[in-house]
Every structure is written in C-alpha cells, then in structure tokens.
Design a protein that fits this description.
This protein is α/β, with parallel strands linked by helices. It has helices at residues 34-42, 60-68, 131-142, 160-165, 178-182, 193-196, 210-214, 216-238, 240-249, 256-266, 276-290, 310-320; strands at 25-31, 51-57, 74-77, 92-97, 103-107, 123-126, 151-154, 171-175, 189-190, 203-208. The strands form four sheets. Strands 3-10-4 form a three-stranded antiparallel β-sheet, with helices on both faces. It has a three-stranded antiparallel β-sheet with strand order 8-5-9. The protein has a two-stranded parallel ribbon with strand order 1-2.
Amino acid sequence: MDSPDASEGPVADAPLPTAVPPGTQLVVADQQELLQSALRASGELERLPFEVRFADFIGGPAVLEAFRAEAADIAPVGVSFHALTDGRDVPIVAAWQYSSTAFELAVAPGRPVRTLADLRGRKVAYAPGTAQQAAVLRALSKAGLTLGDVEAVRLPLADFNDAVRTGQVDVAPLDEPRLTRFFRTPGATVLPDAETAGIYPGLGYLYARRAVVRDPAKAAAVRAFVAAFIRSFHWANTHPQEWARRYYMENQKVSAEDATRILNALDGNVFPHLDQRLIDRQQQILDLIHQTGELRRQPRAADGFDLRFDEVITRTVTEVGAAFDRPSG
C-alpha cells in the first residue's frame, strides 16, 4: 500500500514525463467493462504505447481495495471519499461529465413513495464511499431529512437492483444501465425528476495511485491513457449507434430500445478542466459526507487531484473538438 509523503505535498510539482519506455504496463480497474469497451470500440486501445491489463469491479469501494493491494494503477470511479481519509493515496487525473438525469431514485413495486418527503421511515439502499451515498444524502437534505430519518440498508452496489426489485428495500439510487434493467420489473417506478433534480452531479473520475504518477515511466503512460480516454469517450459521443450496439447491446445485453434510452439519458460526455471549480464541487460532496460522521477526519478535496494532467486534458479536448462544459439551460 502506498504511504502518502507529506514532504512532496498533495500534488507533485515536476512536469509530467512524455516518453513511455518499452515494457511499461498499466493495470486498469474497470467497472462494468465500460472503459475497456470504449477504448476497444474507438480503436484507441491498440494505439496505446504500452501494455494494458483490465480487471473488472462493481463500485468504488471494490476499486479502492484493488488500489490498496497495489493490484490496480488507474481506474474510473464516481467518488473516492475514503481514499482521502484512509490513506489510499489515489489522486484524480481526469474527469468526465454526463447528464445528472441519468440517475434516479428507484421505488420498489407497490410502495407509496412519490416525493422525497415520503422517504421518512423507509428502507433506503446505502453504499458508503460511493456517488450513490452522496445522492441519498443530498435527497434527504433537500427534503429536510437526515440519515436518522430513514432506515439505511448497507448493501454492495451490485445488490441494489435485486433489493429494490424484490422489495427488500423501498428505494435504491440507480444509474445506467442498472436503471434500465430495473424498469423491466412490473410496477417499477422512480421518483419524479422534479423531486430529485440536483441530487446527483453526473461526474466520473479517473484515479491513479500516487506511486504510479510519481514513477516516470508509468506517469507518462497515465498521461497517454488520459488522452486516449478522452478520445474514446468523445468517439462514443459522435458514434452513438455503434456505441449503443457494441457496449449496451452486445456487452451489457440490453435491447436496442433500451440502449437508445440509456444514451438519451446520459446525453453525451464532456471533460472538465482539473481546476479549482472542480475541486470545489468535490469539496461540497465531501463536506456533505463528513456531516454524517462517517469520515474519520475532514477531507480536503484539493489533496485528491493531480492538476498536472490538466495540460493533456486541455490539449486533447481541443484537438478532437470535444467540450469542457455542458451547455447551460
């Protein structure tokens, strides 16, 4: 396990190396095979100047355990609250933004939950250390409730669908494609968008172990990987039908109709700068989690970013004609 070195500060100052020596390898802890599918479908994987190995996980906590065991070098994760409090030194090296409406609070069939206020006293699926946890807390706060006003049922993310589908919990936060699978359940409903607006940021991050971005060979590989990640996700933006077929239909086994619904809900990807605005957004979420008492110390979001990677983000987004921000309005 990597030990943070305070003498080097939260972000390394040295410029990122660009030369990837022969024999360099990165181990990617993927989720639902999303990243590897995008890299393969876009042709970016075969162009990487180093070897990549993939391992698939479900949920940020499982990915962070892989980081702890030094079994992963880089990974896409929604949030990393515990990474900043448990000594798992894994800075953010890139981010992507999709529609916040690609996420809903799913309601078990037959349960009379139609507003956020109706969450009081209900069993709510809860996964600490995940974006879903933050969404639940924001939903409760929006309704003037606290975690003590509901029965939080701690479950792995992989169990959320079955739990809400079968009524083991009343409500579960689901994103795509889990949400589309839930809609196959007779009587499945979700809280109206007017109720849940603003509870989910629609952000994903690429994290890398600090030891990896401090190693010249692997840091150069991560730099190249960030550029390939942006190009591949932008390829998915510009080839929606092929992406729907290759990932959602062939890999995730959803119908063509459901694949179209998912893509419409996600509404494309943009790639924010690694800057103070993004740090502030992450800090707001961390503060929300800290208020529950579940974090052992007050985390500083700025400690969880390696801002050197903004240079390659800026250059790649500009070169491919992608965007840094979603259109307002």
